[in-house]
Design goal:
Helices cover 42% and strands 17% of the residues. It is built from 9 helices and 9 strands. Helix 4 packs parallel to helix 5 and helix 8 packs across helix 9. It is elongated, with a radius of gyration of 21 Å. The chain starts with a strand and ends with a helix. The relative contact order is 0.12.
Length: 262
């Protein structure tokens, strides 16, 4: 499902590589008298727009549907993913308003809290997205490993280089209440354990013909993910929205949201 894109260029690239069926999804607000008065005209305009986009994509060989529903787009997307076998939701992180701080109460933030379907957030600038370098973050938990099949599928579809990153959960020595030697021992053990884990995952992915490298470093997940992403010229960061804590919701301030915000 491709949600409220100014131009469905992200859906086009993803659908072409994966052969996926695309659904262009939009909504029309109807919660105030003003919105209700303009509802029919807005609905017709939105349907005409999506019909034109869908026909253009069909002309390129894609299987495309579209749907416009009343309500808020996050709620509409949640209902749609419940009703249909949606594998991934694609949306841009900035809408027509140009609001750079989409995360603070924005649609994407609400969407990530509502649905359990994987969400691909694209920083929309009108250019065709590149998937040359993918960064997959893992913390050794079973939950974090749920992203691996998606990473495998994307890397194979786009012939991507995949970097596996783990940030050991050991504070810096300045913040660790233990002798330096003890800290170094704990740190070294954590790094060795994560190195072994990442290498095992990497070997399984390499067996599928994927170019994989592994990195274990840092102590601040957000800072490290951003820095490694820049260093490896990452096009897409892949991560789960909850980790060892088993949180039922994606809270503000979690690693996933702060990485996207940065």
């Amino acid at each position: 499902a491709c949600k409220n894109l100014d131009r469905p260029i992200q859906c086009r690239a993803f659908g072409k590589a994966t052969g996926a069926k695309l659904t262009l999804l939009s909504s029309v607000k109807n919660h105030t008298d003003a919105y209700k008065a303009a509802y029919d005209a807005t609905l017709q305009e939105r349907e005409q727009y999506l019909d034109a986009q869908a026909n253009a994509l069909r002309g390129e060989g894609f299987e495309v549907d579209y749907d416009v529903r009343p309500g808020f787009i996050a709620d509409v997307t949640n209902d749609f993913t419940d009703e249909h076998s949606v594998d991934i939701v694609i949306t841009s992180t900035r809408g027509k308003s140009g609001n750079a701080h989409w995360l603070t109460g924005g649609v994407a933030s609400k969407l990530m809290r509502l649905i359990t379907t994987p969400v691909l957030l694209v920083q929309h600038n009108g250019d065709a997205p590149s998937m040359k370098n993918l960064l997959l973050t893992l913390d050794g938990s079973i939950f974090s490993e749920r992203v691996i099949p998606y990473a495998r599928a994307l890397a194979q579809a786009f012939d991507s280089t995949l970097t596996l990153l783990s940030v050991p959960e050991v504070p810096e020595v300045a913040n660790y209440r233990a002798p330096s030697a003890a800290y170094q021992s704990i740190r070294r053990e954590a790094e060795e354990n994560m190195d072994d884990f990442l290498e095992a995952v990497a070997e399984a992915l390499r067996a599928d013909g994927i170019d994989v490298q592994t990195i274990t470093e840092g102590s601040n997940p957000v800072q490290t993910i951003v820095e490694v992403g820049e260093k490896t010229d990452t096009d897409l960061v892949m991560m789960t929205s909850r980790g060892r804590g088993g949180l039922d919701l994606l809270f503000m301030g979690s690693v996933a949201e702060r990485v996207v915000e940065d």
